[in-house]
Amino acid sequence: MKNNRIYKALSMLFFGASLAGVMGCSDFLLEEDPSNLTPESYYTIPDHAEAALAAVYADLRFIGGDGGIFSSNWQLLEAPTGTSTTETAQNSDLNNLYGLIYDGRTQHIINYWNGLYRVIAQANLVIDRVPAITPMNEAQKKRVLGEARFLRAWAYFGLVRLWGDVPLITSPQTASSENFKPAPASKEAIYALVEEDLKIAESAGLPWMDVSGRVSLAATKSLMSQVYLTMAGFPLSKGASHYQLAASKAEEVINYSKGNPSMLNLFPEYANLRDEKLGNRVEHIFQVQYNVVVAGNPMNNMFPNFKPVTFQGPSGTGSTVPTIQFYKSYEPGDLRAVNQVGYFYTSYFTNGSGAPFDLGAPYIFKHFNQTALGKAGTPGTRANNLNLPIIRFAEVLLIYAEAQNELAGPNALAHESLKRIRDRANLTTLAIGQFTKDSFRDAVLRERWHELCYEQITWFDMLRLRKVYNEATNGFDNFVGHVNLSSKEPLQTKHLLMPYPLPEMQNNPNLVPQNPGY
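^ that's the sequence the OP posted. Answer follows.
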């Protein structure tokens, strides 16, 4: 069963409370109060290590957390990109994100900062406490610590890209800790920790793929390729050395895929991406896990505003919908823009499974779970267990193509990687000899925008490239000065960083100065 190992481990946290109900009164009086458990007294057996690690995984779901009325935290990384707009306009914080007038009081910014640091805090506990657990199988211990290192690296990678210099916390904190109110560390120091953590995870004996949803070797190498690609670009601008590292790590994943195509590959159809039975498999290298027993898929804000596309009838918020300009920027014949085939839909079935009707506009179909929500003639199960993608194999292919091109122009594997993405979309690709380095770069970046849209990736591409896709010209503008067609507002230099959350600055006087422009 999906996520069974993670849920089983997490359940150990509550096992002690269950035992109390079957003990005699005298036994109960002799037991230590479970509420007195501390990190020192808790981390004593291997099951505690697994349960603590499960808590780190669980905290990844902050991404889908409440961003206020008709909004979710993930919209922080979608609204400013210009590829989406809103049909509701009832959430002032979300409106500020779309309008590029957000500040340190914007709830999504506060929530995202807190969510990433909560992941780090939980991971720090695992990394600090698990080594002392005895007896514990050394291979199991190494794996647990490797997974925790990956998760901490992922969280810091998000922080450093969004805020730049941020506090660097690597051990459990209490109010009496010496560095309880830390000043920001440099971007270089954050990236150094991210790289160190990922190298430890890479050598932790992880399986290449893990259908339970745990961190795998493919996920680790893929994240390393993301990190190196980002370090090659802005703001660190490390260039060729890190394009080489990015290409090498991506190529390792691609080579594994070629030897094990049933384990790691592109799905043949886009429908497979939103099939909950295929979670953590094939193209899905790493995902945030969802199951309605704990929490259901959090992408409902992509439903049209009060149109009956699911079993719930006229519902949905439409607070993230594609701009017409971005939808029309797909090439003619691109399957990703075909109704109910790729990433958009323009019609659906009344209440999810009834008579077809026209939606009047394109909406995002990428995360639409037809098993749960319904399809033609088949009512949905109402249990939306679709995971949220974090790393897909499609991105690894594009990372390799981009990084290799920056080194020496497109080679055969770079061209093949681009072509595989376009082949699935039913598009033709120029022969390798018809590309220049510049035209190949633009081709790869266009595929990043069109293939990876609405997966909270595009904003990070804009920051590292300092470029933005222009739907009207099919080319790329400089970040500063590009006008988001969703808001008619230009991006400014200050938007290259998010503002520090105001509550954090009030609680920590060392979190200064505020990022420029806010």
